[in-house]
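Lab notebook, design round three. We kept the backbone fixed and only want residue identities now. Task for the bench partner: fill in a sequence for the structure below.
Input structure tokens:
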């Protein structure tokens, strides 16, 4: 028997853990348990994803909630340690780059439990991003590194990770996209918002560097002011962004933009439908850069760097930072031509989780 504790905690983890939990079912020798740290807890940031993606009910919920980075990370560690001591699994599997990832990774390593990191090797080379620190540290202590794109292999090699730990398996986020694309076409979100395919943009924003300060957030709103005059722009607002817009006094200005449609965070299927039909997606998310690459929809990333360079070289993604002129001119270029024929990044074929399960079961 191979006993595996799988960890998820925040919204982008749920679409990565879903295909893994499913892939394990093909291996009678794998005995999985699911731990939810409770980093995200609002129904539309967590439970909705479990329901829509058919993720089994977590076996254990640590219910840590929000806090500063130190408090949140420490609290997850404190609550995860007794779980590992009780179950003593063969592997802990962590996904992505959130605080839950590094917190549970550290606990596993210190207790001598094997650690596997899914989405290893990605680097933005920007250590002001909390996620970059989480990625670097998690990879440094992992025994198995499951990589989603070629840059990940290069980065890990450069950092001295030995070749036998690295497995290029593809992208579990895309497993979930492919498994749900047809279902998402049943979503009524476009009708509910009164939008026609190709006749609107989508915006998401939540990175501290964009939403925590008046200057950066104000500059993005300047760009948005222009863009929403061209096409209605749907903005599902992350709770952190909503709190900051109010705190920084920008809420009123946004509500005054007639083309901007602020909505609550959406479930997976509605959001996928919305992205697939968008003219342009503007975002600072990591996963959305990958999803738009597969959907063949223009993506303007409101950051100066990306840890997912394959979306620039093979996909539909462009880095535009937070300068309003740069954002608007890139937007105009997107509007003047559809994305050219895309090429799917290697191994983004819906089978990444199957490859991971095969390695964990000892089969390859
Ligand atoms: C976290 C991840 C980020 C990921 C993002 C996706 C870290 C360091 N960051 O950022 O990499 O891209 O999730 O959403 O792990 N809140 C709620 N309800 C919730 C969850 C959060 O209202 O269910 C609010 C709280 O005010 C909280 C704030 O959002 O303080 C930030 O939540 P947190 O989990 O700390 O970070 P995110 O910004 O969501």
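Proposed sequence:
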């Amino acid at each position: 028997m191979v006993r595996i504790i799988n960890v998820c905690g925040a919204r982008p983890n749920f679409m990565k853990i879903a295909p893994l939990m499913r892939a394990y079912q093909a291996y009678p020798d794998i005995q999985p348990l699911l731990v939810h740290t409770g980093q995200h807890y609002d129904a539309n940031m967590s439970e909705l994803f479990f329901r829509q993606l058919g993720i089994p009910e977590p076996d254990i919920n640590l219910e840590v909630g929000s806090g500063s980075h130190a408090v949140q990370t420490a609290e997850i560690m404190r609550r995860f340690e007794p779980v590992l001591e009780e179950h003593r699994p063969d592997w802990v599997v962590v996904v992505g780059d959130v605080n839950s990832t590094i917190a549970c990774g550290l606990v596993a390593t210190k207790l001598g439990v094997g650690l596997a990191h899914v989405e290893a090797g990605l680097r933005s080379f920007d250590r002001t991003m909390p996620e970059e620190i989480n990625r670097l540290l998690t990879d440094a202590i992992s025994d198995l590194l499951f990589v989603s794109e070629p840059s990940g292999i290069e980065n890990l090699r450069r950092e001295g990770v030995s070749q036998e730990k690295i497995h290029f398996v593809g992208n579990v986020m895309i497993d979930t996209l492919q498994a749900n694309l047809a279902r998402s076409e049943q979503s009524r979100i476009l009708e509910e918002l009164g939008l026609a395919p190709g006749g609107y943009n989508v915006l998401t924003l939540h990175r501290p560097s964009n939403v925590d300060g008046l200057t950066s957030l104000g500059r993005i709103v300047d760009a948005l002011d222009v863009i929403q005059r061209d096409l209605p722009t749907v903005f599902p607002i992350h709770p952190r962004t909503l709190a900051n817009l109010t705190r920084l006094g920008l809420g009123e200005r946004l509500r005054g933009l007639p083309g901007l449609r602020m909505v609550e965070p959406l479930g997976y299927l509605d959001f996928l439908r919305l992205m697939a039909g968008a003219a342009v997606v503007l975002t600072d998310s990591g996963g959305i850069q990958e999803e738009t690459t597969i959907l063949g929809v223009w993506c303007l990333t409101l950051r100066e760097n990306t840890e997912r360079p394959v979306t620039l070289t093979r996909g539909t993604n462009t880095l535009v930072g937070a300068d309003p002129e740069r954002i608007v001119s890139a937007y105009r270029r997107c509007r003047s031509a559809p994305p050219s024929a895309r090429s799917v990044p290697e191994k983004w074929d819906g089978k990444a989780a199957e490859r991971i399960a095969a390695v964990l079961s000892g089969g390859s």
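Keep this in mind before ordering anything: The CA atoms of residues 213 and 248 lie 8 Å apart.
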